[in-house]
């Protein structure tokens, strides 16, 4: 689907149009609608996670308006969304290849095949690339395909020029978010909320920014406004659940996850996994094991966690309970199920490190890095090392994160906090200067006194306090 962001007035029109279409269908009557309206209605159903209705409307439209480009393009996007690229290609061949919309569609098909350069060359043939519609439509396509940097490049000519245009601001907010420019994204979503305060999408966009900046109370508040605008906006319940989890309110987290479960957005496996992992983190290993094994029994290709990761977490519970033999059984099962599952190696390694089995831990993490030598992997390792009190290992891992991705979210703040606890003044000053909100000398002196504490738990608490100060 094209996933055009539906503007406030148009959203209401399409909601009413959907009612008219469904009413006519229930009465066995036909209804005449303009081709562009039908294409937008199909897109509306797709955005509202009703793919079968979206395809039905597109096909109905093509019976009324045979060969219409907008409807053919919409149908092709629906096939792409259903992981049917060959059908999308067949449709693309039926449409005028000179149209900008056709080139954008074909570029998306190329991106699904990993042909980034070929897609870019095709898009470069669009006439009037800085034209408003072309700029916005190409940017949306790149956002949908998870290429925020490319989306931003297409939008650059319009920044400052179209700051009052809702659809431009909408895709720009998404591009900022995808690039990790959270403050810019937050500001842009707030402009959109001023334009349309009843848009669940815009409130949820702002909530994502607050959540990623660890301002969980603001994220919950924004999700509440999204739910007021649309009480079936499942993503808002999921984000509220995660925000409450990080605020250590398991009960409210579960309340929101259960609403998402009723709406069909998550599975019982997700709920059991959440409870099990929460019990594991709190040290209730027997209860954690009980819920994680329930999740394993009910697993059905759940997209929120892999089966090997569940096996690995079951092993972690057993290892903490002293049942090394059974823990090893689960870890071996995890690696047999998928030898390339990175999370399974990270989880097993973490269990070893927390038990001070450093060599076994490093062996697991080398495997994880063999399959995923990325900044995110190193960052996860760094956080686990801080948790276990291995601050020198944490230093190495977070420095690797910084080297691989210099703008990794909050990496300067984490390194500054770590070096302050390690009493490494030179490196602390280096990274403190790179922080968005560097610490003042009075704050530094206060934390230096606290940093003489030695236990891993105390070190973790101090680092978290320093991070709160730096943000």
Descriptive keywords:
single chain, 471 residues, mainly alpha, Serine Threonine Protein Phosphatase 5, Tetratricopeptide repeat, globular, disordered N terminus
Distance between the termini: 38 Å
Q: Which class do the helix and strand fractions yield?
A: mainly alpha
Look at the structure and give the mean pLDDT: 88
SSE pattern, N- to C-terminal: HHHHHHHHHHHHHHHHHHHHHHHHHHH
Taking the sheet with the most strands, its summary is: none
Using only CA atoms, what is the Rg? Answer: 25 Å
Can you give the helix content as a percent range? over 70%
For CATH, the homologous superfamily of the domain at 165-266 is named as Tetratricopeptide repeat domain
Counting DSSP H or I runs of 4 or more residues, the number of helices is 27
What is the general shape? globular
CATH topology of the domain at 165-266: Serine Threonine Protein Phosphatase 5, Tetratricopeptide repeat
CATH architecture classification of the domain at 165-266: Alpha Horseshoe
What's the total number of strands?
Answer: 0
Strand content: under 5%
CATH class of the domain at 165-266: Mainly Alpha
Q: Could you list the spans in which at least 5 consecutive residues all have pLDDT below 50?
A: 1-7
């Amino acid at each position: 689907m094209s996933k055009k962001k539906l503007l406030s007035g148009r959203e209401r029109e399409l909601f009413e149009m959907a009612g008219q279409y469904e009413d006519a269908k229930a009465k066995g009557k036909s209804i005449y609608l303009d081709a562009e309206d039908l294409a937008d209605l199909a897109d509306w159903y797709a955005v509202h996670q009703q793919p079968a209705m979206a395809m039905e409307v597109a096909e109905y439209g093509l019976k009324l308006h045979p060969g219409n480009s907008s409807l053919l393009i919409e149908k092709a996007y629906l096939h792409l969304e259903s992981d049917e690229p060959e059908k999308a290609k067949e449709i693309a061949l039926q449409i005028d290849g000179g149209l900008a919309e056709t080139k954008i569609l074909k570029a998306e098909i190329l991106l699904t095949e990993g042909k980034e350069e070929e897609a870019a060359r095709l898009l470069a043939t669009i006439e009037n690339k800085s034209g408003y519609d072309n700029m916005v439509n190409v940017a949306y396509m790149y956002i949908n395909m998870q290429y925020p940097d490319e989306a931003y490049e297409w939008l650059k000519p319009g920044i400052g020029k179209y700051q009052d245009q809702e659809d431009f601001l909408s895709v720009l907010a998404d591009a900022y978010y995808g690039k990790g420019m959270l403050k810019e994204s937050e500001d842009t979503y707030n402009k959109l909320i001023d334009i349309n305060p009843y848009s669940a999408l815009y409130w949820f966009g702002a909530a994502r920014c607050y959540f990623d900046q660890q301002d969980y109370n603001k994220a919950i508040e924004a999700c509440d406004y999204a739910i007021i605008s649309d009480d079936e906006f499942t993503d808002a319940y999921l984000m509220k659940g995660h925000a409450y989890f990080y605020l250590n309110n398991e009960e409210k987290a579960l309340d929101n996850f259960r609403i998402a479960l009723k709406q069909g957005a998550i599975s019982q496996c997700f709920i059991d996994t959440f409870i099990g992992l929460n019990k594991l983190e709190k040290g209730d290993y027997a209860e954690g094991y009980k819920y994680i094994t329930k999740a394993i029994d009910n697993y059905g290709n759940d997209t929120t966690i892999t089966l090997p990761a569940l096996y690995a977490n079951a092993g972690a519970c057993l290892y903490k309970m002293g049942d090394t033999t059974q823990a090893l059984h689960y870890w071996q099962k995890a690696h047999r199920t998928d030898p390339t599952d990175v999370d399974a190696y990270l989880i097993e390694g973490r269990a070893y490190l927390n038990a001070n089995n450093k060599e076994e831990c490093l062996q697991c993490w080398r495997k994880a890095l063999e399959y995923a030598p990325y900044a995110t992997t190193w960052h996860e390792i760094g956080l686990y090392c801080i948790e276990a009190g291995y601050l020198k290992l944490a230093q190495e891992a977070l420095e690797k994160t910084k080297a691989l991705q210099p703008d990794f979210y909050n990496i300067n703040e984490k390194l500054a906090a770590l070096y302050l606890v390690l009493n490494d003044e030179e490196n602390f000053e280096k990274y403190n200067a790179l922080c968005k909100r560097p610490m003042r000398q009075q704050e530094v002196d206060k934390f230096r006194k606290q940093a003489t504490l030695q236990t891993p738990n105390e070190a973790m608490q101090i680092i978290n306090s320093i991070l709160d100060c730096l943000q």
